[in-house]
Amino acid sequence: MTIELGTGSIDRTAGSTSATHSSLSGKVGLVTGGARGLGLEICRQLAERGAHVIVAARDVAKAEAAAKGLRGAGLTASSLKLNVTSVSDRKAAYDAIESTHGRLDILINNAGILLDSVDGGTPADPPPSGALPSTVRETFEANFFAPVFLTQTLLPLLRRAQAARVVNVSSIRGSLTHLSDPSSPVYPVRALGYDTSKAALNAFTILLAEELRGTPIKINAIHPGWLRTSMGGGRANMSAEEGAAIAVQYASLGEDGPTGGFFFGDERLPW
Ligand SMILES: NC(=O)c1ccc[n+]([C@@H]2O[C@H](COP(=O)([O-])OP(=O)(O)OC[C@H]3O[C@@H](n4cnc5c(N)ncnc54)[C@H](OP(=O)(O)O)[C@@H]3O)[C@@H](O)[C@H]2O)c1
User: Fold this and answer.
1) N or C: where does the chain have the smaller number of CB atoms within 10 Å of the terminal CB?
2) Atom of ligand 1 nearest to the CA of 172
3) What's the whole-number mean pLDDT along residues 47-70?
Protein backbone atom coordinates (compact mmCIF):
# COMPACT_ATOMS: atom_id res chain seq x y z
CA MET A 1 0.00 0.00 0.00
CA THR A 2 1.23 3.45 -0.69
CA ILE A 3 0.61 6.33 1.62
CA GLU A 4 1.07 10.04 1.36
CA LEU A 5 1.59 11.74 4.70
CA GLY A 6 0.16 15.04 5.67
CA THR A 7 -1.46 15.85 8.96
CA GLY A 8 -3.31 18.65 10.60
CA SER A 9 -0.59 18.93 13.22
CA ILE A 10 2.35 19.89 11.06
CA ASP A 11 4.50 22.78 12.17
CA ARG A 12 3.50 25.65 9.91
CA THR A 13 4.99 29.06 9.45
CA ALA A 14 2.99 32.15 10.21
CA GLY A 15 1.14 33.93 7.49
CA SER A 16 -2.33 32.54 7.05
CA THR A 17 -4.42 33.90 4.23
CA SER A 18 -7.72 35.58 4.85
CA ALA A 19 -8.33 36.56 1.24
CA THR A 20 -11.80 37.02 -0.15
CA HIS A 21 -13.22 34.52 -2.62
CA SER A 22 -14.93 35.24 -5.88
CA SER A 23 -17.96 33.55 -7.38
CA LEU A 24 -17.23 30.77 -9.86
CA SER A 25 -20.46 31.30 -11.74
CA GLY A 26 -19.74 31.28 -15.46
CA LYS A 27 -16.06 30.42 -15.02
CA VAL A 28 -14.44 27.69 -17.08
CA GLY A 29 -12.17 25.33 -15.15
CA LEU A 30 -9.96 22.43 -16.23
CA VAL A 31 -8.93 19.70 -13.78
CA THR A 32 -6.25 17.22 -14.81
CA GLY A 33 -6.67 13.69 -13.52
CA GLY A 34 -10.29 14.69 -13.01
CA ALA A 35 -12.02 11.33 -13.39
CA ARG A 36 -11.22 9.91 -9.96
CA GLY A 37 -9.71 10.57 -6.54
CA LEU A 38 -9.04 14.13 -5.50
CA GLY A 39 -9.45 15.39 -9.08
CA LEU A 40 -13.05 14.19 -9.38
CA GLU A 41 -13.95 15.80 -6.08
CA ILE A 42 -12.35 19.08 -7.20
CA CYS A 43 -14.46 18.88 -10.38
CA ARG A 44 -17.60 18.38 -8.32
CA GLN A 45 -16.92 21.27 -5.98
CA LEU A 46 -15.96 23.68 -8.77
CA ALA A 47 -19.17 22.79 -10.60
CA GLU A 48 -21.23 23.12 -7.41
CA ARG A 49 -19.84 26.64 -7.12
CA GLY A 50 -21.18 27.43 -10.60
CA ALA A 51 -18.21 26.72 -12.86
CA HIS A 52 -18.31 24.84 -16.14
CA VAL A 53 -15.84 22.13 -15.32
CA ILE A 54 -13.79 20.29 -17.92
CA VAL A 55 -13.05 16.83 -16.57
CA ALA A 56 -9.71 15.87 -18.14
CA ALA A 57 -8.36 12.33 -18.01
CA ARG A 58 -6.08 10.17 -20.11
CA ASP A 59 -8.94 7.70 -20.59
CA VAL A 60 -11.62 9.77 -22.28
CA ALA A 61 -14.32 7.19 -21.50
CA LYS A 62 -13.61 7.64 -17.77
CA ALA A 63 -13.58 11.42 -18.21
CA GLU A 64 -16.95 11.34 -19.96
CA ALA A 65 -18.43 8.95 -17.37
CA ALA A 66 -17.36 11.35 -14.61
CA ALA A 67 -18.69 14.38 -16.50
CA LYS A 68 -21.96 12.56 -17.14
CA GLY A 69 -22.28 11.83 -13.42
CA LEU A 70 -21.83 15.52 -12.64
CA ARG A 71 -24.34 16.54 -15.31
CA GLY A 72 -26.77 13.98 -13.83
CA ALA A 73 -26.48 15.89 -10.55
CA GLY A 74 -27.53 19.06 -12.34
CA LEU A 75 -23.99 20.44 -12.72
CA THR A 76 -22.25 21.77 -15.82
CA ALA A 77 -19.42 19.55 -17.00
CA SER A 78 -17.73 18.34 -20.16
CA SER A 79 -14.94 15.84 -20.78
CA LEU A 80 -11.55 15.99 -22.44
CA LYS A 81 -8.90 13.39 -23.28
CA LEU A 82 -5.69 14.60 -21.70
CA ASN A 83 -2.70 12.48 -20.88
CA VAL A 84 -0.71 15.25 -19.26
CA THR A 85 2.61 13.77 -20.40
CA SER A 86 1.56 13.84 -24.07
CA VAL A 87 2.61 16.86 -26.15
CA SER A 88 -0.14 16.21 -28.71
CA ASP A 89 -2.82 15.84 -26.01
CA ARG A 90 -1.73 19.12 -24.45
CA LYS A 91 -1.91 20.89 -27.82
CA ALA A 92 -5.31 19.29 -28.55
CA ALA A 93 -6.53 20.48 -25.15
CA TYR A 94 -5.58 24.05 -26.09
CA ASP A 95 -7.41 23.75 -29.41
CA ALA A 96 -10.53 22.23 -27.85
CA ILE A 97 -10.80 24.84 -25.08
CA GLU A 98 -9.98 27.67 -27.48
CA SER A 99 -12.71 26.69 -29.92
CA THR A 100 -15.36 25.95 -27.28
CA HIS A 101 -14.73 28.59 -24.63
CA GLY A 102 -12.10 30.98 -26.00
CA ARG A 103 -10.49 31.29 -22.58
CA LEU A 104 -9.68 29.38 -19.38
CA ASP A 105 -10.42 30.83 -15.94
CA ILE A 106 -9.14 28.00 -13.74
CA LEU A 107 -6.42 25.41 -14.25
CA ILE A 108 -5.96 22.75 -11.58
CA ASN A 109 -2.79 20.76 -12.14
CA ASN A 110 -3.95 17.77 -10.08
CA ALA A 111 -2.76 14.67 -11.97
CA GLY A 112 0.14 13.01 -10.22
CA ILE A 113 1.81 9.71 -9.50
CA LEU A 114 3.58 8.14 -6.54
CA LEU A 115 5.67 5.27 -7.85
CA ASP A 116 8.13 5.06 -4.99
CA SER A 117 6.10 3.14 -2.45
CA VAL A 118 6.24 3.33 1.29
CA ASP A 119 4.38 1.16 3.73
CA GLY A 120 2.99 2.19 7.08
CA GLY A 121 4.99 5.40 7.13
CA THR A 122 8.39 3.71 7.15
CA PRO A 123 10.84 3.89 4.27
CA ALA A 124 10.31 0.72 2.28
CA ASP A 125 11.96 1.73 -0.93
CA PRO A 126 15.59 2.15 -1.91
CA PRO A 127 17.29 5.13 -0.30
CA PRO A 128 17.94 8.09 -2.59
CA SER A 129 21.31 6.64 -3.54
CA GLY A 130 19.56 3.53 -4.85
CA ALA A 131 16.46 5.05 -6.47
CA LEU A 132 15.77 3.67 -9.92
CA PRO A 133 16.44 6.20 -12.72
CA SER A 134 13.29 5.01 -14.50
CA THR A 135 11.16 5.73 -11.41
CA VAL A 136 12.63 9.17 -10.91
CA ARG A 137 12.27 10.09 -14.61
CA GLU A 138 8.71 8.79 -14.92
CA THR A 139 7.69 10.63 -11.77
CA PHE A 140 9.18 13.88 -13.02
CA GLU A 141 7.38 13.47 -16.36
CA ALA A 142 3.97 13.34 -14.66
CA ASN A 143 4.47 15.49 -11.56
CA PHE A 144 6.75 18.24 -12.87
CA PHE A 145 7.28 18.42 -16.65
CA ALA A 146 3.59 17.81 -17.42
CA PRO A 147 2.14 20.61 -15.26
CA VAL A 148 4.88 22.98 -16.38
CA PHE A 149 4.35 22.35 -20.09
CA LEU A 150 0.55 22.18 -19.80
CA THR A 151 0.51 25.54 -18.04
CA GLN A 152 2.79 27.01 -20.72
CA THR A 153 0.51 25.64 -23.45
CA LEU A 154 -2.68 26.98 -21.86
CA LEU A 155 -1.24 30.31 -20.71
CA PRO A 156 -2.61 32.25 -23.71
CA LEU A 157 -6.11 31.08 -22.72
CA LEU A 158 -5.48 31.94 -19.07
CA ARG A 159 -4.36 35.42 -20.12
CA ARG A 160 -7.67 35.88 -21.97
CA ALA A 161 -9.66 35.23 -18.78
CA GLN A 162 -10.55 38.17 -16.57
CA ALA A 163 -8.51 36.91 -13.61
CA ALA A 164 -7.29 33.36 -14.04
CA ARG A 165 -6.27 31.11 -11.16
CA VAL A 166 -3.80 28.24 -11.40
CA VAL A 167 -3.56 25.70 -8.57
CA ASN A 168 -0.66 23.28 -8.53
CA VAL A 169 -1.52 20.27 -6.40
CA SER A 170 1.77 19.71 -4.63
CA SER A 171 2.54 17.95 -1.36
CA ILE A 172 4.08 18.77 1.98
CA ARG A 173 6.63 16.17 0.88
CA GLY A 174 7.88 18.79 -1.57
CA SER A 175 8.79 21.10 1.31
CA LEU A 176 12.58 21.22 1.75
CA THR A 177 11.97 22.56 5.26
CA HIS A 178 9.94 19.47 6.22
CA LEU A 179 12.23 17.03 4.40
CA SER A 180 15.17 18.31 6.45
CA ASP A 181 13.36 18.54 9.81
CA PRO A 182 13.55 15.35 11.92
CA SER A 183 10.52 16.54 13.91
CA SER A 184 8.33 16.79 10.81
CA PRO A 185 5.69 14.06 10.40
CA VAL A 186 6.81 13.57 6.80
CA TYR A 187 10.51 13.24 7.68
CA PRO A 188 10.44 9.40 7.86
CA VAL A 189 8.54 9.04 4.59
CA ARG A 190 11.03 9.50 1.82
CA ALA A 191 10.78 8.85 -1.87
CA LEU A 192 13.33 10.55 -4.10
CA GLY A 193 11.20 10.84 -7.24
CA TYR A 194 7.97 11.98 -5.60
CA ASP A 195 9.46 14.37 -3.06
CA THR A 196 11.83 16.11 -5.49
CA SER A 197 9.20 16.33 -8.25
CA LYS A 198 6.87 18.19 -5.87
CA ALA A 199 9.73 20.42 -4.69
CA ALA A 200 10.40 21.28 -8.34
CA LEU A 201 6.69 21.98 -8.87
CA ASN A 202 6.84 24.36 -5.92
CA ALA A 203 9.81 26.16 -7.50
CA PHE A 204 7.88 26.47 -10.78
CA THR A 205 5.00 27.99 -8.80
CA ILE A 206 7.31 30.66 -7.38
CA LEU A 207 8.96 31.46 -10.71
CA LEU A 208 5.77 31.68 -12.79
CA ALA A 209 3.99 33.71 -10.13
CA GLU A 210 6.88 36.19 -10.17
CA GLU A 211 6.74 36.39 -13.96
CA LEU A 212 2.98 37.01 -13.85
CA ARG A 213 3.05 39.48 -10.97
CA GLY A 214 1.33 42.62 -12.20
CA THR A 215 -1.17 40.59 -14.22
CA PRO A 216 -4.53 39.44 -12.79
CA ILE A 217 -3.37 35.80 -12.87
CA LYS A 218 -2.60 34.08 -9.55
CA ILE A 219 -0.76 30.79 -9.22
CA ASN A 220 -0.33 28.89 -5.96
CA ALA A 221 0.77 25.46 -4.80
CA ILE A 222 -1.29 23.55 -2.25
CA HIS A 223 -0.88 20.53 -0.02
CA PRO A 224 -4.34 18.93 -0.01
CA GLY A 225 -3.70 16.86 3.11
CA TRP A 226 -3.24 13.12 3.54
CA LEU A 227 -6.30 11.84 1.71
CA ARG A 228 -8.28 8.62 1.52
CA THR A 229 -7.75 8.10 -2.21
CA SER A 230 -5.97 5.25 -3.97
CA MET A 231 -2.74 7.20 -3.53
CA GLY A 232 -3.31 8.10 0.10
CA GLY A 233 -4.76 4.76 1.20
CA GLY A 234 -7.56 3.97 3.62
CA ARG A 235 -5.74 5.06 6.78
CA ALA A 236 -5.37 8.67 5.67
CA ASN A 237 -6.79 11.27 8.04
CA MET A 238 -8.70 13.40 5.52
CA SER A 239 -11.36 12.81 2.89
CA ALA A 240 -11.03 13.74 -0.77
CA GLU A 241 -13.83 16.25 -0.14
CA GLU A 242 -11.72 18.05 2.46
CA GLY A 243 -8.68 18.08 0.18
CA ALA A 244 -10.72 19.34 -2.76
CA ALA A 245 -12.04 22.23 -0.69
CA ILE A 246 -8.47 23.51 -0.37
CA ALA A 247 -7.94 23.40 -4.14
CA VAL A 248 -11.24 25.22 -4.70
CA GLN A 249 -10.29 27.80 -2.09
CA TYR A 250 -7.24 28.76 -4.18
CA ALA A 251 -9.14 28.47 -7.47
CA SER A 252 -11.60 31.09 -6.25
CA LEU A 253 -9.21 33.59 -4.69
CA GLY A 254 -10.33 37.17 -4.88
CA GLU A 255 -8.18 40.00 -6.17
CA ASP A 256 -6.63 40.46 -2.71
CA GLY A 257 -5.51 36.83 -2.54
CA PRO A 258 -1.91 35.65 -2.53
CA THR A 259 0.13 34.45 -5.48
CA GLY A 260 3.31 32.40 -5.52
CA GLY A 261 2.57 30.72 -2.18
CA PHE A 262 2.32 27.19 -0.78
CA PHE A 263 -0.74 26.50 1.37
CA PHE A 264 -2.59 23.89 3.41
CA GLY A 265 -6.03 25.39 3.96
CA ASP A 266 -5.52 28.88 5.37
CA GLU A 267 -1.98 28.09 6.48
CA ARG A 268 1.12 29.12 4.55
CA LEU A 269 3.55 26.21 4.41
CA PRO A 270 7.32 26.62 4.41
CA TRP A 271 9.12 25.87 1.14
N1 LIG B 1 -3.68 11.39 -1.66
C2 LIG B 1 -2.90 12.10 -0.88
O3 LIG B 1 -2.75 11.86 0.33
C4 LIG B 1 -2.14 13.26 -1.47
C5 LIG B 1 -1.39 14.07 -0.59
C6 LIG B 1 -0.67 15.14 -1.12
C7 LIG B 1 -0.75 15.42 -2.47
N8 LIG B 1 -1.48 14.61 -3.29
C9 LIG B 1 -1.53 14.94 -4.71
O10 LIG B 1 -2.88 15.07 -5.12
C11 LIG B 1 -3.00 14.74 -6.50
C12 LIG B 1 -4.13 13.75 -6.70
O13 LIG B 1 -3.83 12.61 -5.90
P14 LIG B 1 -4.90 11.46 -5.59
O15 LIG B 1 -4.77 11.18 -4.16
O16 LIG B 1 -6.21 11.75 -6.19
O17 LIG B 1 -4.19 10.27 -6.39
P18 LIG B 1 -4.82 9.05 -7.21
O19 LIG B 1 -6.05 8.61 -6.51
O20 LIG B 1 -3.72 8.10 -7.43
O21 LIG B 1 -5.24 9.74 -8.59
C22 LIG B 1 -4.23 10.22 -9.43
C23 LIG B 1 -4.89 10.92 -10.59
O24 LIG B 1 -3.85 11.39 -11.49
C25 LIG B 1 -4.17 10.91 -12.77
N26 LIG B 1 -2.97 10.75 -13.62
C27 LIG B 1 -1.81 10.14 -13.32
N28 LIG B 1 -0.97 10.20 -14.39
C29 LIG B 1 -1.64 10.87 -15.36
C30 LIG B 1 -1.33 11.26 -16.69
N31 LIG B 1 -0.15 10.97 -17.25
N32 LIG B 1 -2.24 11.96 -17.39
C33 LIG B 1 -3.43 12.28 -16.85
N34 LIG B 1 -3.80 11.92 -15.61
C35 LIG B 1 -2.91 11.22 -14.88
C36 LIG B 1 -4.89 9.59 -12.56
O37 LIG B 1 -5.60 9.23 -13.72
P38 LIG B 1 -5.85 7.68 -14.16
O39 LIG B 1 -7.22 7.35 -13.64
O40 LIG B 1 -5.78 7.72 -15.66
O41 LIG B 1 -4.76 6.85 -13.55
C42 LIG B 1 -5.79 9.98 -11.40
O43 LIG B 1 -6.92 10.71 -11.86
C44 LIG B 1 -1.63 14.22 -6.94
O45 LIG B 1 -0.91 15.25 -7.59
C46 LIG B 1 -0.96 13.87 -5.61
O47 LIG B 1 0.45 13.93 -5.69
C48 LIG B 1 -2.19 13.54 -2.83
Assistant:
1) N
2) 6
3) 98
